[in-house]
């Protein structure tokens, strides 16, 4: 076994491990935003590790294409989590009682007390 | 930023400002081919110019300041953060599971330009465990959702992390005025 084999094996195994923990998180974590973290983020890391592990074994020309995959994954992953998370907060699927701290709710209630419409928290039908 | 802002300028950027886009598209083209040769680079340039002419991006104002070394340091920090937070969220999932606790933390915004805000929001949402829930531009506040908060120490840690991440983004992409405003904000916050 060459050094490349060992590096690839370690990277692939860790990548797979992070993907598995992501799947576990979807089942185990309490509410939508937390599950979203588990579903999107450890898998970003897992995918990066798996791609890196693959790149070690490939010839240079093919490995370069993987860089593109990593790049676009890193650029697009935050956008989707942000949009879903925002809607989760506004539609009330986020369990507010369980939050350690919620400074956004404080600000929103201040806004409502001030007679301003503020941003509607419960716009869900 | 999305068109939903209503403030997106619709005039196309002047031709001279479009060359970064052309270069980026050419690089993507060459990477997709996987090999580099004169023919492929010229073909990529041709496609890039045609795409840029057919689909002009809206102008985003004056050229972005760009500092390569701070950008490298930002990328390094984000990679490190991705790994550390990945482990933290995994631990939170395995150890606490349904009893995992989260919080929403308000953090002062240190610079207000569209591009810096967009990049900071992206950088903040990249790492596991946290993302930007709401941006209040009028008051200059980020509302960051963070997973795995166990006490007030964790809240302070996340707040400090967000502040310093903002500074790293501004050092890499912000204007000189933004940088001074940022440092002033860091001292007071």
From TrEMBL, chain A:
One of its GO terms (molecular function) is sodium:proton antiporter activity. Keywords: Membrane, Transmembrane, Transmembrane helix. It holds the Pfam family PhaG_MnhG_YufB. The keyword Metal-binding does not apply. NCBIfam families: CPA3_mnhG_phaG, PRK12674.1-2. This is Monovalent cation/H(+) antiporter subunit G. Belongs to the CPA3 antiporters (TC 2.A.63) subunit G family. Residues 106-125 are annotated as: Disordered. The chain crosses the membrane at residues 6-27, 64-85.
From TrEMBL, chain B:
It is found in: Cell membrane. It comes from the Bacteria. GO terms for molecular function: monoatomic cation transmembrane transporter activity. The chain crosses the membrane at residues 27-57, 69-91. The keyword Cell membrane applies. It is a multi-pass membrane protein. Keywords: Cell membrane, Membrane, Transmembrane, Transmembrane helix. Pfam families: MNHE. One of its GO terms (cellular component) is plasma membrane. Belongs to the CPA3 antiporters (TC 2.A.63) subunit E family. This is Na+/H+ antiporter subunit E.
């Amino acid at each position: 076994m060459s050094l490349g084999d060992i590096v690839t094996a370690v990277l692939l195994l860790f990548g797979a491990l992070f993907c598995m923990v992501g799947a576990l998180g979807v089942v185990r974590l309490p509410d939508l935003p937390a599950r979203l973290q588990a579903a999107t983020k450890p898998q970003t890391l897992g995918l990066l590790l798996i791609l890196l592990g693959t790149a070690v074994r490939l010839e240079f020309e093919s490995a370069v294409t993987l860089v593109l995959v990593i790049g676009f994954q890193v650029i697009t992953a935050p956008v989707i989590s942000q949009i879903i998370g925002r809607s989760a907060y506004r539609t009330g699927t986020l369990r507010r009682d369980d939050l350690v701290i919620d400074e956004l709710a404080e600000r929103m209630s201040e806004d409502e007390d001030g007679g301003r419409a503020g941003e509607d928290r419960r716009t869900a039908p | 930023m999305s068109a939903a802002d209503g403030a997106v300028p619709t005039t196309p950027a002047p031709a001279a400002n479009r060359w970064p886009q052309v270069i980026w598209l050419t690089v993507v083209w060459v990477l997709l081919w996987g090999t580099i040769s004169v023919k492929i680079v010229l073909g990529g340039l041709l496609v890039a110019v045609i795409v840029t002419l057919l689909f002009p991006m809206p102008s985003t104002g004056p050229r972005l300041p760009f500092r390569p070394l701070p950008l490298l340091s930002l990328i390094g920090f984000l990679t490190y953060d991705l790994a550390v937070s990945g482990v933290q969220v995994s631990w939170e999932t395995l150890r606490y599971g349904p009893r995992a606790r989260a919080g929403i933390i308000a953090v002062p915004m240190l610079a207000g330009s569209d591009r810096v805000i967009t990049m900071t929001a992206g950088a903040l949402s990249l790492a596991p465990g946290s993302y930007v829930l709401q941006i209040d531009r009028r008051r200059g506040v980020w509302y960051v959702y963070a997973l795995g908060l166990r006490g007030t120490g964790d809240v302070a840690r996340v707040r400090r992390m967000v502040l310093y991440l903002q500074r790293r983004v501004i050092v890499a992409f912000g204007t000189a005025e933004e940088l001074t405003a940022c440092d002033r904000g860091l001292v007071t916050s």
